[in-house]
Amino acid sequence: MLEPRTHSIACANPTGIHRMAYYEWGDPTGDEVVLCVHGLTRTGRDFDVLASRLAQRYRVVSPDVVGRGLSDWLLQPLSYAVPQYVSDMVTLIGRLQPKKLHWVGTSMGGLMAMSYAALVAQSKSALTQTPPARLTHTIDEPVVPISRLVLNDVGPRVEPSSLTRIGQYLAQDLRFERYEEAVAYMKETAATFGPHTEQQWDLLTRHYFVPKEGHWVKHYDPSIAKAFANVSEELMNKGESLLWGAFHAVNAPTLILHGAQSDLLSQKTVQQMLSVNPLARQVDFEGVGHAPSLIVDNQVQIVVDFLEEA
User: Fold this and answer.
1) What is the rounded average pLDDT for all residues in the chain?
2) 42 occurs within a structural domain
3) CATH code of the domain containing 40
4) Burial level of 143, CB count in 10 A (0-12/13-18/19+)?
5) What ranges in the chain are assigned the alpha helix state H?
6) Mean pLDDT on 22-46
7) Does 289 map to a domain?
8) Which of 131, 171, 239, 297 has a Cα-to-Cα distance from 163 of 20 to 30 A?
9) Does residue 10 lie in a domain region?
10) Does 298 fall in a domain?
11) Reading across the β-sheet that carries 32-37, which strands appear in turn?
12) Above 60 in pLDDT, residue 305?
């Protein structure tokens, strides 16, 4: 696998400025970017395998969303939410300045993609309503739209049962004395990822647990659990409504990867997504729950083939 280049950018939050780390593969001057965004507690290094495959053709970028990996932690835990994350992605895309943007989003990363698409649609609408006399120069696009989108086991509706499961492991303050114990934990808690080789389990563990003070600890801010616990049923219902509106704004070929045994994305939700977006298609992975890891060969190939159709 190719080793990425590591960078960081400054992003604004309600209490100040934080640093967001991101990884980059391929030509650093390439103007066709594949942005890969990870799930709730993962890191940008989840995409090492996929990025290595894509790097010959694309500039591949994967951030550590704030509070994870090498990125800073927020002072206000309740800021760990999609609006902050999407704001950071807008800042990152502004730094990258792609002419064409593809997005691969796993779970939370897919929610961010849909929210970003809604922002793009809103920005276009606002620009068309701006009186010409106020424009000092021509703007082709207020923000770069998504050209092709991969939603990895996520949709506008998140099944409540999955949130219960996620909440149980999210708040666990675990410390292992040996790395092998961390790998064993990963095999247990991420069993829904499906069958993997020992090498692949190592890939899934090595950036999720890091050494600290003689122990192996999770590589994210424990305060993320506080924001997660603050999500009420009312907020979930409101969020789902907003996300369906956001998904309607996705005007791009969309590949929905679905773990056939997923407890987060139901088949009913997938069918509704397909009816909303005629450019969307579905691929199911048997023996996989939430979520496909995108390091298994057949999963990687499906994503590569979809992006290269362009």
Assistant:
1) 93
2) yes
3) 3.40.50.1820
4) middle
5) 48-54, 82-96, 108-128, 160-170, 179-189, 198-205, 224-229, 233-248, 267-276, 297-308
6) 97
7) yes
8) 297
9) yes
10) yes
11) 5-13, 16-25, 59-63, 32-37, 100-106, 146-152, 254-259, 280-285
12) yes
Q: Which helix (H) or strand (E) holds 310?
A: none
- Tell how far CA 25 is from the center of its chain: 17
Lowest mean pLDDT among 62-76, 112-126, 295-309: 112-126
Q: Which residues pair with 283 in a beta bridge?
A: 257
The pLDDT assigned to 132 comes to 54
Furthest CA-CA distance within the chain: 66
DSSP lists the bridge partners of residue 175 as 217
pLDDT digits (tens, 9 = 90+) for 128-187: 555 555 555 544 555 899 999 999 999 999 998 888 888 888 878 889 999 999 999 999
First to last CA, the chain: 24
Write out the residue range of the structural domain in which residue 279 sits.
Answer: 5-129+140-160+239-308
List, for residues 220-273, the tens digit of each pLDDT value: 999 999 888 887 778 888 889 999 999 999 999 999 999 999 999 999 999 999
Name the 3-class secondary structure at 57.
coil
Q: Distance (Å, rounded) from C-alpha 168 to C-alpha 295?
A: 25
- Which is nearest to 92 in space by CA: 72, 65, 119? 65
